[in-house]
Amino acid sequence: MSGRATLLLAGVYYLLGAFAVTLWLWRDPASRMVAGNPNDADQFAWFFRYDATAVAHLHLPALVTTAMNAPRGVNAMWNTFMLLPGVVLAPVTLLAGAQTSLTVLMTVGFAGSATAMFFVLRRWDVSVPAAALGGAVYGFSPAVIHSAIGHYDLQFVVLPPLIVDAVLRLVTGRVSARRGGMILGLLATAQLFITEEILFDTAVAVVLLLVVLALRRGSLAGLGAPLAARAKTALGGLAIGCAVTLIIAGYPLWVQFFGPLQQQGSPFTIDFFKNDLSGFVVPSSLMLIHTAGTAATAANSPGHLPEYLGYLGMPLLIALAAAAIWFWRHPVIRALAVTCAVTDVFSLGGTLLTSGHGHPAVKLPWYWVQGLPLLSAVLPDRFSLVADGAAAGLAAFAVDAAAPAFAAFAAFAARQRPSLAAGRRPVAVVMSCAALAILPIVPGPLPASPVTPLPPGWSAVFAGLRLPSSAPVLVVPVPQAAFTEPLRWQADSGQPGSLVGGYFMGPAWNGHAFIDGSGTPPAGMYLDQVWKASATALPAVLTAEAPVNSAPSSGGDAPAKAITIKQMRAQLRVWRPAAVVAVTTPGSVLAQYLTVLLGRPVAAAGDVIAWRT
Q1: CA distances from 31 to 36, 462, 553 (A)
Q2: Within the chain, how many helices (H) and strands (E) appear?
Q3: According to the model, what pLDDT value does residue 422 have?
Q4: How many Å apart are CA 443 and CA 40, to the nearest integer?
Q5: What are the pLDDT digits (tens) for 118-140?
Q6: Region for 603 from its dihedrals, namely left if φ exceeds 0, alpha if ψ lies in -120 to 50, beta otherwise
Q7: Quick count: other Cβ atoms within 10 Å of Cβ 147?
Q8: CA-based, 20 to 30 A from 522: which of 12, 139, 559, 588?
């Protein structure tokens, strides 16, 4: 079978595996998401609708927009924009909805990541069975599986293996500087427009690989390429790659770091999103083999399941360690083992966390760099994604190295005891052992939950308002990071064109990055409190919890500060909405309050009431 036919067949098998993992989503791809992280899923749906709307008007999405957080806006480059997938899948979004596009992206992410790893391993002369194993370990690794819980940008890891391959081919002289540099630049740019964080993590892995490979007598041992002899080609190709990236992505990067709404620092607590050391061997509920106890432990970890990225299972860890020790003289195995180990250590963060207990006195390598500019925004646990890639490559190369070693051992044993058959199917035996090692990381179908559907009357009310496409609208309840349903409604309907509030990363008053920037103002919190006070009249469609810190005084959260009518009108002048749209029922506390504030509503249908301002 030809190389292309083998690659195609592998891709088909991986696609079948991807459909098996996303099985429950495909029962209704437009209205089902992976359960466990609705807020991030709503945000991604919003960005996909935003991208598709721009494409429908025959232009690329603006990098700074007031479609969310009007009138101040959002710098999309600081957010999980996913510009490239959003634009590519715009026709799907326009025809079948944003959630369908996200389901397609996730399915392609699993199958494409596995196929990319298979392709790269075959290119470096790994046998078909070993490459198939490595592709499956990478594309369906626990880190990728857990990232599928709302983190679509992290789950789509198709390009990192190709980027590593492009760099290695340049350094080893297997491709010309011009061609290799162009390919590397295009791949890096594409990854930048998917998520910058994985591009950085991949760069770290590449550096580790090259350093280990070059340590042996100044050459890339085992790859047949003296480093000094290939330096000119490598440096030339890297320069071309950087030039390609700057030509294509230079302006977006300028907007990010020097344009409007620039920010510094991280919105997340440093050293919070990191792997627990015990998490490497404790399976979550997403693995086929788990217990109620291990599932509960994983679910209660920092960041919960979407950030539970370290698990590899004791059998696979033992097998990888044994392979690294036994075949340490093999340069590629040594390089992959070191890369896997170092990136896994990075994933542990700055200080040690074991079994849920922190040990701040134990300083780890990441501690010494986590406060540096830009690096402070890197979440250490996500190094697990590239660590799993290194683990997959290590497993594949180890299988190929183990097969002849096993055959030689079997032949020796047969000479000692003729009753033993020498070298009987060494590849099958080694692959069987490898399959047993990866059995604990085999995932089950991802659990699905419905997205919050449009409130009855939503589209009819906006049709009646007849607002300009860019007119900002204040939706009550006011959207924020912990209550994102209005973003989902905007993504599913395309209305309104511009939304007050939202869920985004933005600068606060001092320029420091925070989730939701400076946060929802007191007037918005008060509106949410009044909305919550309408509990007996809330539409049944709202099954999620009320916004954080907007519960009435009888609840567990502190009540919002009371706002006078004068103060509320002053805030409305700041927001400058063209309309106020409330998801509530006539006669509710919220409807009565807004009628006093704004007069009689101009449109009402189902569970939606609207006022012009």
Answers
A1: 15, 21, 35
A2: 22, 15
A3: 46
A4: 22
A5: 999 999 999 999 999 999 999 99
A6: beta
A7: 28
A8: 588
> Residues 152, 158, 162, 164: is their CA dihedral positive or negative?
positive
Pick from 80, 85, 113: nearest CA to 306: 80
What tens digit of pLDDT does each residue of 478-493 get? 999 999 999 999 999 9
Q: Reduce the DSSP state of residue 421 to 3 states and report it.
A: coil
Predicted local distance difference test score (pLDDT) of residue 546:
42
Say which amino acid occupies 158: V
Which three-class secondary structure state does DSSP give residue 482? coil
Which residues are CB-neighbours of 591 under 8 A, at least 6 positions away? Answer: 534, 582, 584, 585, 601, 609
Residue 232's pLDDT is 82
Q: Using CA of residue 583, residue 585, residue 588, residue 592, what is the dihedral sign?
A: positive
Whether the model clears a pTM of 0.85, i.e. scores above it, the answer is yes
Coil, strand, or helix at residue 515? strand
CA distance 388 to 396: 12
Using pLDDT thresholds of 50, 70 and 90, give the confidence band for residue 100: very high
DSSP string, 332-357: HHHHHHHHHHHHHHHHT-SEEEETTE
Report which residue type is found at 269: T
| Highest mean pLDDT pick, 126-135, 229-238, 422-431, 553-562 | 126-135
DSSP 136-178: HHHHT-HHHHHHTTT-HHHH--SHHHHHHHHHHHHHTTSS-HH
